[in-house]
Amino acid sequence: MTTPGRPRRSALYLPASNARAIEKSRTLACDVVILDLEDAVAPDAKTEARAGAVAAAKAAGFGPRELVIRANGLDTPWGRDDLVAATAAGPDAILIPKVSSSQDLAAARAAVGPDVPLWAMIETCQAMFALDEIGAASARLGVTVWVIGSNDLAKEMRCALTVERAPLMTALSLSLMAARAHGIAILDGVFNDIADDDGLARQCAQGAQWGFDGKTLIHPGQIEAANLAFTPEPDAVAWARTVVAAFEAPETRDKGVLRVDGRMVERLHLAEAERLIRISDVIAAREMP
Question: CA spacing 20 to 30 A to 102: which of 26, 39, 146, 238?
């Protein structure tokens, strides 16, 4: 299940073979650092990258940032060794690529044992037709976060990967619904054009409007835009506090529906208001000087 109130607005991928980038990430404003052993690492650098990820995880020093290691798939020559090494290193989670079925998650869980939190990449056409199955398995096997792999998905679909992502709308919406149905956090895919600040801002806003918890990133320069888009608006937080206060009042504590400032509010809105406040409070505490 997802961790209530934990912000994951910005999740930055870094090649685990780049020691300087890893060291810098300890000072960046991202919520998550993902040390990548997969796509960002050439085959002849896989062993070096694995050692770098293990060293970084053991050294710690990432503060409030979650540290995640993305392994290679179990169907590759490096996948099993990645999982064994990452498990011993003790990151906050291990990210499993190209999850297309519940069997993929079961194999990963068997390889790492019962205790390590897992994240799952949703990035194949096959996964789109097994989202409910993967969601149920995720909840059962301790997968706390899904990550959209939009580049791989667009490649399989042979579709254009525009800022608006119209060809991916169905896949993204269904993935979101499946994640929510099974209580799993979900992060949006990357934006590839590092120089297009306007496009990045538009896509971050789109992801936030759709309901993603945050966005995966490929460059530190993208962190600010993601944090801005996925930080709750002050007006929304103020309204959330009003809703919580209304339901906590002695005369309305047992009510299922209330009229608050002229608007009808149900108890289902209370849970969302409480979640928004928790996230906002954590973000505010992190950003205090």
Answer: 39
User: What does the alpha-carbon distance between residue 4 and residue 116 come to, in Å, rounded to a whole number?
Assistant: 18
CA 185-186-190 angle, 5° bins: 150
pLDDT at 180: 97
Are 28 and 123 found together in one domain?
Answer: yes
Q: Is residue 169 part of a domain?
A: yes
Look up tokens 């194949």; give the residue: 124
The answer to whether residues 218 and 190 touch, using CB atoms and an 8 Å cutoff, is: yes
- Banded pLDDT at 1 (limits 50, 70, 90): very low
Assign 3-class secondary structure to 157-188.
HCCCCCCCCHHHHHHHHHHHHHHHHCCCEEEE
Residues 30 and 136 in one domain: yes
Residue 33 in domain: yes
Residues 165 and 267 in one domain: no
Torsion (CA) 227, 228, 231, 232 in degrees, nearest 10: -170
- Give the Cβ contact number of residue 230 at 10 Å: 24
Average confidence score pLDDT of the chain: 95
> What is the total count of domains within the chain?
2
Which range among 99-113, 166-180, 263-277 shows the weakest confidence by mean pLDDT?
A: 263-277
Assign residue 284 a region (left: φ > 0; alpha: ψ between -120 and 50; beta: otherwise): alpha
Considering the domain architecture, whether residues 22 and 113 belong to the same structural domain is answered as: yes
Cα separation of 161 and 181, whole Å? 27
Residues 6+ apart with CB under 8 A from 22: 14, 16, 33, 35, 52, 56
Whether residue 264 sits in one domain with residue 168: no
pLDDT per position as a tens digit, 182-216: 999 999 999 999 999 999 999 999 999 999 999 99
Residue-level pLDDT at 59: 96
Is there a contact between 105 and 94 (Cβ–Cβ < 8 Å)?
A: no
Domain range for residue 265?
234-286
Residue 93 and residue 220 in one domain: yes
